What we know:
Layout: H1 22-42, E1 47-52, H2 56-71, E2 75-76, E3 84-89, H3 94-113, E4 118-123, H4 129-138, E5 144-146, H5 154-162, E6 168-170, E7 191-195, E8 197-198, H6 209-213, E9 217-218, H7 221-233, E10 238-242, H8 259-267, E11 274-278, H9 287-295, E12 302-304, H10 312-317, H11 324-337, E13 342-349, H12 356-369, E14 373-378, H13 396-418, E15 425-433, E16 440-445, E17 450-454, E18 463-471, E19 475-480
Parallel strand pairs: 1-2, 1-3, 3-4, 4-5, 5-6, 7-10, 10-11, 12-13, 13-14, 17-19
Antiparallel strand pairs: 8-9, 15-16, 15-18, 16-17, 18-19
Helix pairs in contact: 1-5, 8-9, 12-13
The structure holds S-adenosyl-L-homocysteine, iron/sulfur cluster and FE3-S4 cluster.
Residues 200, 202-204, 207, 209-210, 244-245, 281 line the site of iron/sulfur cluster.
Amino acid sequence: MYNEIDITKIDTAQEPPLAEPERQYYFMAKCREWTDAFAKEHGRRPQACVVNMGCQMNARDSEKLTGILEEVGYETVSDEHADFVIYNTCTVRDNANQKVYGRLGFLHSLKKKNPGMRIALCGCMMQEPSVVEKLKKSYRFVNLIFGTHNIYKFAELLFCSLESEEMVIDIWKDTDKIVEDLPAERKYFFKSGVNIMFGCNNFCSYCIVPYVRGRERSRKPQDILREIEKLAADGVVEIMLLGQNVNSYGKNLEMPVTFAELLREAAKIDGIQRIRFMTSHPKDLSDELIQAMKELPKVCHHMHLPLQSGSSRLLKIMNRRYTKEQYLRLVEKLREAIPDISLTTDIIVGFPGETEEDFQETLDVVRKVRYDSAFTFIYSKRTGTPAAAMENQVPEDVVKERFDRLLKEVQAISKETSSRFEGQTVPVLVEQINEQDPDLVTGRLGNNLLVHFPGTEELIGKIVNVTLTESKGFYYLGELEGN
Ligand code: SAH
Ligand code: SF4
Ligand code: F3S
């Protein structure tokens, strides 16, 4: 959809242009020649598989990779038995890293059977120098490695690696650059993520994201709105505005704009029926945003508001810059303004020095807020973050026991909370045929819960009214209104 530049018209005999995104379109044309030659030789187009391992921001990056691969003539598949496999990695917790090493072993076995296969790695984990050292030493079969800051250069790097027998590595420490107007493919034709900012400046003491994603950079509102207008023209009805901390959007722009102002502009775009956003940091959540959410019918009544811990003492050491009381007050304000709002959260158990009293504070917040759902994580030590150097790490068995207690509490509450819409008729965006029963379709409520109800393929991508007949705890069964 961003193919404003027709790559078949590019003269690849010339030197590559220096300006972006023109330079990348030039390399897309070069890659296209490569895939055409492949197709001629093998009687089929080469296949590519993009595997996303991270958060929504990574997922959006994966769509950009897919967009470029399709533009240059790869057939994209979900099976790793492909000619080109790229893992878009995450490193927020150590188990994410372990998964990559495990799966690389599997890819190596596939490559032995298909020596022409090419393997690429990108994303947050590649921004860690120790990871790249390990790959260079023990994973020589990987063809291409790049990081988060130069992902816009994917076409150029891909071409470079197609032409080379050596491992191609390009990692930047940081960037202040945002390259607009590159192709992107969408997983769903009716909904899309939209990056509004990149990076993070918060440096929560446990978190590696600021180190691997760099400093906070906001896209210009006109670029974001132009992208949303194009998506709407292309049939998208739901957008999710993405950033590590959307509440601080626009602060570093030449002409500062608030997130609430951006929401108001986005809501004016015809065709867009639903707007979501993620993630909100409690410290920057303004009254202006609450007001905008209340007034704008397109904005979903759902807020993901990571708590991390209920202990003000730990929140301080975590560098979260709010207290338990401030967080609870915020929840109160949200519920006063938007009574049916669904709240979800992230919680870390076992942060260094966490005592039973600290943990009880977390349970207390969980009981008071009664989240619709909560992602619970065991603290994972990330080398290079301040928390990793703290001496009082909590023993594994203590953490595990607390984690189990928290999970039980969270699940019991969320089962009750999420059933509160039973009997109501609500708008639902139909996303797919039900995975277990082909006579049902699956749709998403404004609050992000799923409902399964009798329906057919034609409903996919439409917003319809569904009566929620039965709550199953974390999802509903329903009936299409009027049926
Ligand atoms: N920017 C978002 C979070 C991005 S990371 C925010 O601030 O809300 C997603 C979640 O991973 C975090 O909310 C946190 O709960 C969890 N997380 C981050 N670092 C972690 C670590 N070292 N160990 C365990 N969980 C972690
Ligand atoms: Fe990590 Fe904190 Fe930034 Fe979220 S706000 S990405 S938890 S440093
Ligand atoms: Fe993971 Fe990077 Fe997202 S570390 S959580 S993929 S920003």
